[in-house]
Structures are given as C-alpha cells and as structure tokens.
Amino acid sequence: MIVTVVSDVLGVENNGVTIAAMNLIRSLKEKGHTVRVLCPDVDRMGQEGYYIVPTLNAGPLNGYVERVGVVIARADQRIVRQAIKGADIVHIMLPFPLGRCALRIAKEEGIPVCAGFHAMAENVSVHLKMQNVPFANHLVYEYFAGFYRDCDAIHYPTQYLRDLYEGMYGKTNGYVISNGVSDAIHPVQTQRPARYEGEYLILFTGRYSPEKSHRILIDAVAQSAYRDRIRLIFAGKGPEKEKLVSYAQKLPLQPVFSFFSRPEMLKLLNEADLYVHPAEIEAEGIACLEAISCGLVPIISDSPRCATRYYAPGENNLFHYNDPADLTRRIDGWLSDPAARVVCREQCLSMAESRFRLSACMSAMERMLSETLAHAGKAVPAGAGNL
C-alpha cells in the first residue's frame, strides 16, 4: 500500500502522538509499504517521503506555544495535495487544521481515510485553563465530531476513548488498538548510581502541565513516612517546570526534573522502586505502559477521565485522584512490602507481554488500514506487507 500519514504534531519523540506516529511509520516501512509523511517538522525537510508544511504564526501566543513544546501546522493545500494524490489510503493522527485539510482533499481524490482519536477535549481546553468547564469541553468535542464523522474508520488507542466518543456521538467503524510499547522497552540489569544509594526512587513521566497533577505526588511524598528517603524523578518537559521546581522545595530530597533520552529512560525504568501516574486527564498514557513493561510497580490515579486506571494490576495499584493522603497510603504500603512488589512485578510483565507489545499492535494497525481500503471498494495492493 501507499499510505500517507498526516500529523499536525511531529518532532522529537517526547509526546504520545509523535511516538505513536513514528512507531506506525517505521512499522509500515518495515512491512514493505510506501509511507508518505505530511507534517510541520522542519528538521525532516529533504528526507525521502516527508512533505513539510509551514508552521502557524500565532502572533502574541508564539511564546506560549514554544513553552508548551509543540509547533502548530499551517495547511498548505499544494503540499497537502502532493502528499495525498496517488496514495491508497490516508491515516490522520489529529483532527486539527492540517488533518482537516488532508481529510477534505482525500475525499476529493476518492481516497479512504482512517483517523486516530488521540486527543481528549481536556487536552485542548487545559491550555485555556478551562479543562473542568463542561461547556468548553463540549465545544471541543463538537469540533472533533465534525472531523471524525467523515472518516471511514477511527483508531481508538483505548476502549475508554471509544466508549467516551461513541457515548456522545453514536457507533462508529472503530478499532481499539493500543499504540503499543516498543519491544526495546523491557527489563534489563542496571546499576543504580551511587548518588541514589539508600534512597527510594519514584518515577513519573509526563508533561509539566496542570492536568498531569505533579503537585499531588509532591504533596503525597511530603506526608510519607519515607519522605526523608524518597527521591522523585519527573521525566518530561513543559510550561509548568519552574512552578513545580518551586513547589517541590518543601521536600527533604529535591526531585530531578529533566527530559531523558530513550536509553536513559530504559535505565530509569529499571532502577526505580515505584512508578506513580497521578494524572487527572489521560487519553492512553504510554509512559505508564512502559513502566509496567519493565516490571515497575505502578500506582495510578483512578480519575474517571484517565484511561490509565484500567492498567492497574490490582486495587492496591490505584489511589483516589486528587487525594494526596490516599496516594501516601499506597506509596508507604508498597515501600514497606518488598515481597508484594516482587509479585506485582511478575503480574506487570505478564500483562505487558500479552496486551501491549508494539509488534502485535502495529500488525493490528496494518489490518485496520487494509480492511478500510477493502471496505471502500478499493483493491488492496498485493505483495506488500503482511496483510
């Protein structure tokens, strides 16, 4: 197949959408398909198969956009048409301006379209500090629905997201497929740095933004019986970093705030004692899955707006969202029981292997594309990939 992948956001693999897009692109190429990529990532200008559109000038908001760490694509119809014309199928990652332009042009060309449902309304409204305003979130979902209703198939990374969307807008031709965890993320032998000797390391990977609820974890550790020995490691980047660094000053051991490379993350995932995911809003939470895939015991928010709550191996791996005292209870319980952590580790590894391995997830994505092509009355090209 000739597949055009469209992503309004694509750059360094430091966010879920970019990681999911790049995993799909690499997998399709490995399976023998021709992949065109339409995106605003200027660093990929000139690379074979990449069609680069300009970025949007947000005027007075440019500074904020830069702090958030993403670029906003501006749809250039000439470039969009070049990327789509002659493709067998188009897969769109996000329902934003570039994706919407690609959908319209694909329909003009008679090319079927799949699209991923990766963003919740709150992922948009949080930037206006309106993530808890129902009317604002409703308007965002209405905007989304105007896009998805014209797609031939929808990829939902979690059943939670499918239930959320179909609960509002009715049944869709949907496929629930995890974005998957790379086979490179697995348990490895590692030596913890001497500077952390005698400490408990608790890891959380997520953007430094309000909906990720870093403060809840900081407050929980401040109340812990082990607070003098707990070192928090906040892997990520984002606009709230300075505020979080200041807020964490009350802890006896100052947290580590840093963006880590993939090899560094693998090492951290195998060195930490616990992984805590306190987010209030989470569409999938690949970072949480990566921790589980390394056998790291998770403690996860039970927020009704988080898909990650379904990854908990047991009740003791959940805490009441936005409740630091309950999180403290879970942290202290796990740190005081090494034998229970060993048992939970094996549960995590078994769950990850059966449900979240990237190779199986990417084969399911390929089947979705080929089935959508067939349902649209198009012949599926023979001899390319494992259809």
Structure characteristics:
alpha/beta; Rossmann fold; 2 domains; 7-stranded parallel beta sheet; 6-stranded parallel beta sheet; 13 strands; globular
Supply Rg. Answer: 21 Å
CATH domain fold name of the largest domain: Rossmann fold
Question: In total, how many domains does the architecture comprise?
Answer: 2
* % residues in beta strands: 5-15%
Number of helices: 14
> Which CATH top level class of the largest domain fits?
Alpha Beta
Count of strand segments: 13
Q: At the fourth CATH level, what is the homologous superfamily of the largest domain?
A: Glycogen Phosphorylase B
- General form: globular
CATH architecture of the largest domain: 3-Layer(aba) Sandwich
Order of neighbouring strands in the sheet with most strands: 3-2-1-4-5-6-7
Determine the structural class based on helices, strands and strand pairing.
alpha/beta
Low-confidence blocks of residues? none
* Cα-to-Cα separation, first versus last residue: 10 Å
Which sequence of SSEs, written as H and E, runs from N to C?
EHEEHHEHEHHEHEEHEHEHEHEEHHH
Write down the overall mean pLDDT. Answer: 91
How would you sum up the major sheet?
A: 7 strands, parallel
Helix content: 40-55%
